[in-house]
Amino acid sequence: MNDQVVVVIPAYNEAHTIVEVVRGLKLKGFDRIVVVDDGSSDQTGEFVRQQGVVLISHLVNRGVGGALGTGINAALRFSPKVIVTFDADGQHDPDDVPRLIEPIEKGEADMVNGSRLLNPEGMPWYRQVANRIANLVTYVLFGVWTTDSQSGLRAFSRDAATRLQFMSSGMGANSEILAEIVRNNLRFKEVPVKAIYTSYSLSKGQSLDVGLRTMVKLILVKVRRLGL
Fold first, then answer.
1. What is the C-alpha separation between 15 and 98, in angstroms, rounded?
2. Domains of the chain, each with CATH number or no CATH
3. Predicted confidence (pLDDT) per residue in 82-134, tens digit
4. Torsion angle, alpha carbons of 143, 149, 155, 158, to 10
5. Strand order in 54-58's β-sheet?
């Protein structure tokens, strides 16, 4: 089914890892790849251009949500059966992608979330705590429970992807995507995935300050969704 899958990779200043990430996916047979260079100031776009995949460049940094929106819309033009989102920092294992695709292929789910916390081996304790707090906030605001609301590894059926509408441009989009699953009455499933942590990938994670600002933005999104 790999030729019916498009992988979307949002990337911001990921010249250190992006080539390895793209090549790793290709080695597993995932050749249909869309990379969104989200206004990088390094050589991310230049390196991607040499890999023979689709490259879309934002002139300015729009955040994860903006990059995902651009990438998913571009992927839909290929009329795939499944769209997979995949982080550019090297923390995801390409071997996990088929595990996310399978429930959609079998008609068991419309969206599959790759959860690092179903098997958190190797995840620093402070990351586990931060993720669990984010999970609780997501549940309180949007009414959807997940063990890993901030996972960047997900799979969507084409129909589910066409229904996604999120307001957040930054990291809050991760939680808002889950809210869209509830709003559209889509079938949701989680599968365990491996997280590959390096000093580089850990440096790309959310700081406390970013986490707090993301929480405030999610509250504002909730207010706008309620029309207040």
1. 26
2. 2-226 (3.90.550.10)
3. 999 999 999 999 999 999 999 999 999 999 999 998 887 777 777 788 778 88
4. 40
5. 54-58, 33-38, 5-11, 82-85, 154-157, 111-115, 188-192
